Amino acid sequence: MNPYEKKRRWKFFLLIFAIIIGAASVFYSDFFVKKMEREERLQFHLYVKVTEQAIMMYDEDRYTSLIDLIRANNKLPVIMIDSKGEIRGYQGLDSTKTNYDVENKPGVSFDPAYFKRELRKMKAQYAPIPINTMGLDGSSWYIYHKDSPTLTQLRYFPYIQLGVISLFLLTAYVAFSSARKAEQDQVWVGMAKETAHQLGTPISSLMAWVELMKSRFNAEDDPLIAEMENDIKRLEVITDRFSKIGSKPILDDHVVFVVIQNFVAYFKLRTSDKVIFTITGDEQVRAMLNVPLFDWVIENLLKNAANAIENEGRITINIIENLAKEEVFIDVTDTGKGIARSKFDAVFQPGYTTRKRGWGLGLSLTKRIINNYHSGEIFVKDSDLGKGTTFRIILKSSITYEPTEN
To answer: Can you give the pTM of this predicted structure?
Structure first.
């Protein structure tokens, strides 16, 4: 299993674990909410019974302060109305909006709209309970109630808690991922520049040895010496690539077809004769490119394609100009093994590879070069298992190119 698959599996397990914890928290809180809801329901029924007794015994000697005490201990918001819908009593409401004074004394507040809103909420939550008013007018009165503020807060608390925790975890994940990515980038940049530095001395030595061979053996036109020079130049290009990592590259206006054609001419001499290379499309379209880095992109795509077809098949590069969006499409198609649709994004992750001896860095570097340095896009356009794969590169044409800060 490659490192990317292991990383994704661990993320999946951690996500499942987090979901289990969240579900357990909601379930546990819901248990207490239901328990408190039952207790409030019993308290409300007790309040109704005591209120009914208070009304029936209002003018009798049996009415005691105990009844008032029991009613006063009720903390639930309740409203009692008569058969005409008039409010006859209330409790547990906002005292700043419910002070009712029949003599209209100044400084006393009363908000009828507040009562209507509260009564509407109570009707939406629970059905009313009728009480016997034989001690007064004999008609049916009704008592409404709703959940206490504590129960309401407790009902929504686990979801708010999960939201806050999720937001915190997401923020922490993004922060740590950014810090880790920045640290990894610094390591890669340092290694790349050190590699370029280390390659410089042996390349210079090889160039000197080639010149010595040409002069000593009079081999100016020897094709083998010429190919050795080409490989040394290739090493210089690779060294230049590594030295540019971490720095903002210089982009120049180039004909895309010519750049690709030049690299394919070099690459196909070092590939099996059974691999057929074809370049098609618009031969005049131009784009802003850093040729050494862009060659690296094409090299990685062609190497992957050659491995996919196992050095026997066809690799086609098609260049298309999208005039409507002023973009350049470069499609690299092979007739190889194909990629499963679920792996379309994974192939660009560092460490992802299907080869036993691969590092899984080629396509990751390719994506970075296209996205960060050329302000473009690269993705798997299409793939069928056993039939082949098409990678698409999207670049802005030279006319519309606007450089972005890295």
So the answer is: 0.53
User: Domains of the chain by range and CATH?
Assistant: 3-147 (no CATH), 250-396 (3.30.565.10)
Distance CA 269, CA 275 (A): 10
> For 35, phi and psi rounded to 5 degrees?
-65, -45
Are 87 and 97 within 8 A, CB to CB? no
- Residues 309 and 327: their CA atoms lie apart, in Å, by 29
Per-residue pLDDT band at 289 (split at 50, 70, 90):
very high
For residue 93, give the 3-state DSSP assignment: coil
Rounded-to-integer distance, Cα 287 and Cα 298, Å:
15
Percent of the chain with pLDDT over 70: 84
Alpha carbons 406 and 396: distance in angstroms, whole number: 17
Provide DSSP, 310-337. TT-EEEEEEEEEETTTTEEEEEEEE-SS
Let me know if 56 is exposed, middle or buried by CB neighbors in 10 A (0-12, 13-18, 19+): middle
Contact in structure between 328 and 285 (CB atoms under 8 Å)? yes
Strand spans (E) along 212-369: 252-255, 275-281, 286-289, 313-322, 327-334
Confidence of residue 294 (pLDDT cuts 50, 70, 90): very high
- 49: three-class secondary structure by DSSP: helix
Q: How far apart are CA 308 and CA 176, in angstroms?
A: 36
Of 281, 203, 284, nearest in space to 242 by CA? 203
pLDDT, one tens digit per residue, over 54-102 is: 776 665 555 555 556 666 666 788 888 887 888 877 888 877 777 655 4
Q: Which residues contact 93 (CB under 8 A, 6 or more apart)?
A: 77, 79, 114, 115, 118
pLDDT tens track for 191-203: 777 787 788 888 8
